[in-house]
Design brief:
One of its GO terms (biological process) is cellulose catabolic process. The protein has about 400 residues and is α+β, with helices and mostly antiparallel strands. The chain has 10 helices and 14 strands.
Length: about 400
């Protein structure tokens, strides 16, 4: 959707394929027990390159093979966007050429809601660092009891209240707007960043030349928080429609690449037209559905995803040999194997991979390699060990176990 996504050849492709395989089997893996509260969940769409598109805003290490959040060019007549170099300035600043990529708009896939968001980022490596992922569970309104998985890609610059701002095509613009030039009374603020102070010469994400005059189509800008009237945050399409039907119709008036993305905010399998619901956040390992779009994954997520063996159904048998799969390979016994069971991201089926496979993909230096590999540990360096990593079902944390542990547990 939206842009032409390119990856470097060789190790970067292998890295992504491997992690997609592991994440597919371990989606929604909790990385901690701590819960964080969000008072308001809002939406935005201003067209600007997100703050996590610069490595200088990262307080945590980016995983090998990945980078900061991708930036894109304006939307072309065929609905695509070109990739823009990571170092390009935001179109919301003077001389900038980098915009938000449409495929970081919230979406639902296989019944699971996903989103990218702005939040008050901690660039020193604390909570809410660039590219961290969370499970957000809502407690009020149409979204009560529902959840979504979200990656933090932008800085909200909010007031003294915990807010999360979901990136949704068709949501409200704020102080910044490089989406389109709006000459209607709905948007009297100047075009560009900082209410027209910067980026006024940047071409719009959706130019009038390619997409026609869009005055009034994108709705009102959302207003700043003004207690106690929280609803003052309403903006975008939500500010010019009432029920789901009229909101879908308003979305259909937008340039066609953004129509279905816009409808997510009002769809039953999307945000259900919720206003500004509170949420509880819990840190999760980033799912492939998110990092494959943003292009950003933290090293701690990569290490976590690959430190525990992929989930394999205990009842699933190896059809080729009639043997029960052994997660993580054998122990220190005679004849034990170095094979690892992981899910093939292309077929969705469990397959065996060897230490040589993982070495070839560039994962020799990972601790989990030395834990899983047996006879061919020398391929990756380090000392052999009979330790196996598994996730403790009670704590949600990865733990090391030995062959003696498994023998004792019968």
């Amino acid at each position: 959707m939206g842009r032409v996504r390119g990856m470097a050849a060789g190790s970067r492709i292998a890295t992504l394929v491997l992690l997609v395989s592991v994440a597919a089997a371990q989606d929604n893996v909790y990385m901690g027990q701590e819960y964080r509260s969000i008072d308001l969940t809002t939406r935005y769409f201003d067209g600007c390159k997100p703050a996590c598109g610069w490595t200088g805003n990262f307080g945590k290490e980016i995983a090998p093979g990945f980078g900061p959040v991708r930036g894109c060019g304006p939307v072309k007549p065929d609905g695509t966007q070109d990739r823009v170099p990571d170092g390009a300035y935001s179109a919301c600043s003077d001389g900038g050429t980098s915009y938000a990529c449409l495929d970081t708009s919230a979406f639902t896939e296989d019944g699971q809601r996903y989103a990218f968001a702005a939040i008050s980022l901690d660039t020193t490596g604390g909570p809410y660092s660039c590219c961290e992922c969370y499970e957000a569970t809502f407690s009020e309104g149409p979204m009560a009891g529902q959840s979504l998985q979200v990656q933090m890609i932008n800085n909200g610059g909010f007031v003294n209240r915990p807010l999360m701002d979901l990136h949704v095509v068709g949501a409200g613009k704020g102080d910044n707007n490089v989406v389109s030039v709006d000459n209607s009374a709905l948007d009297p603020a100047p075009y560009g960043g900082g209410l027209g102070k910067t980026g006024a010469d940047s071409p719009p994400l959706f130019s009038a030349e390619d997409w026609g005059d869009q005055s009034g189509l994108w709705g009102r800008r959302f207003s700043r928080y003004n207690p106690p009237n929280d609803v003052s945050y309403a903006g975008g399409i939500a500010s010019v429609c009432g029920d789901q039907t009229s909101c879908f119709e308003a979305c259909d008036d937008l340039p066609w690449p953004g129509r279905e993305m816009c409808k997510w905010e009002f769809a039953d399998d999307g945000f259900r037209g919720a206003s500004i619901p509170p949420a509880t956040l819990r840190r999760i390992a980033c799912p492939a559905a998110l990092y494959s779009r943003s292009g950003c994954l933290l090293r701690e997520d990569q290490d976590f995803l690959t430190s525990a063996p992929p989930a394999v159904d205990d009842d699933e048998e190896d059809q080729s040999s009639g043997e029960q799969p052994v997660e993580g390979g054998g122990g220190g016994e005679e004849g034990c194997e170095d094979e690892i069971w992981a899910t093939n991201g292309a077929t969705g089926e469990p397959e065996r991979y060897t230490c040589e496979d993982y070495a070839r993909w560039g994962f020799c230096d990972e601790d989990w390699m030395r834990g899983w590999c047996r006879k061919t540990c020398g391929t990756c360096g380090g000392e052999c060990s009979d330790e196996i990593w598994e996730v403790n079902s009670s704590t949600g944390q990865p733990e090391e176990h030995t062959c003696e542990d498994y023998a004792r547990w019968d």
